[in-house]
Amino acid sequence: MFAQVVPLPSHRHTHRLQQSRLPIMLDKSKLTVISNITLTIVCSTALAILVVIQSSLFVSVTAIALLLVLLAAQFSQAKYYLVQIIRTERYHKLGRKLVHNKQIEKRDEVVALKILNHIVNQPLEESEHATIWQSSYENFSGDLAMTCQSECGNTYMLVADLTGHGIAAAMGATPVASIFQATARRGLDVDQIMVELNNRLTRLLPSGFFCCAAIAKCDGKKVTVCNAGLPDIIIATSTGEITDRVESTQLPLGIEELKSDDVKVFTKSYTASHQLYAYTDGLIETQSTNDEIFDPEKLEILISSQAYSGSRIPTIQKGFETFVKGSQQNDDISIVEVNIC
User: Fold this and answer.
1) How far apart are CA 200 and CA 158, in angstroms?
2) Burial zone of 181 (CB within 10 Å; 0-12 exposed, 13-18 middle, 19+ buried)
């Protein structure tokens, strides 16, 4: 979940400049209205006095009436502009409040992201036994990809995909990461970790939420895998030959209580170096600009066509990004490569 905080938009300085100019514009508008009213009153009064002195009573009354109508029209127009100014000021205050709230929300998001990253993410140093690539759909990812070493030196791997996106899904990833790390460091078997995760999530997650997950344990040349709702896990040789596919044999976690006897695991020992690949469906459901899907077959071509040298993850990432170039990501993406013996 190596999500990065998106900085505030670059137009913020222009927005602040507009904010600073708006009060000046409002003051000028008020001054213009007041000046027009004052000038109208002065001119009307002067004209009325002139008419009264130099004309007959009828003409004087008619002129005064016309002047009063003109004055009333000016007051009506001034009232209209004043109402517009008051509304503009109100919108301006509302806009400043919204900007302020957005800044607070952004600050809280940054803090929450740092806390979740600290709890969930792997250290920045790559593990010598595993390589991880992730791409988040939003700042907060609902995917979880982790490796952990037990006290006796065994390597554990977890790939999880929680329902939804954003901070709600990321919050659900927090207990998953905590439980996995605690149980893996104690060296528990894969079925025991699955049961612990599932039963805790069943009590924790609200109705309609669940977690697709895969857990693997590498004990020397022996690997044990359990897949609960994720795409097929691929195991390939160093030369790219795909020897095994581990299908999902369990319901996603958090739906119903489990016992160890309910968990189905894949176990196999290898005599030569192999690599295990576990990934979320965001990788194989992404569409290109031509509406083609980066399906499992395309992923397997990238795995099988490249001889193993360090890690295939850069090759997979480059092939994926080339295929979907220009299209919009619509889900979190995670893939983990684990070295077996």
Assistant:
1) 16
2) middle
Closest CA to 168 of 118, 121, 109: 109
Beta bridge partners of 135: 333
Predicted confidence at residue 53, as pLDDT, reads: 67
Alpha carbons 77 and 75: distance in angstroms, whole number: 5
Considering the domain delimited by 122-340, tell me its CATH architecture.
4-Layer Sandwich (3.60)
Burial class (CB in 10 A: 0-12, 13-18, 19+), 202: middle
Q: Is the pTM of this model over 0.85?
A: no
Going by pLDDT thresholds of 50, 70 and 90, the confidence category of residue 310 is confident
Residue 248 has pLDDT above 60, yes or no: yes
Q: Which pLDDT score, from 0 to 100, does residue 121 have?
A: 52
Q: When comparing pLDDT for 93 and 218, which is higher?
A: 218
Q: Closest Cα partner for 78 from 40, 134, 118, 23?
A: 40
End-to-end CA distance of the chain: 26
Please state, in angstroms and as integers, the Cα–Cα distance from residue 322 to each residue in 136, 211, 281, 294, following that order.
18, 30, 18, 11
pLDDT confidence bin for 198, thresholds 50/70/90: very high
**SS3 for 42?**
helix
Give CA–CA dist 71/189, Å, rounded: 91
State how far the Cα of 61 lies from the Cα of 52, in Å rounded to an integer.
8
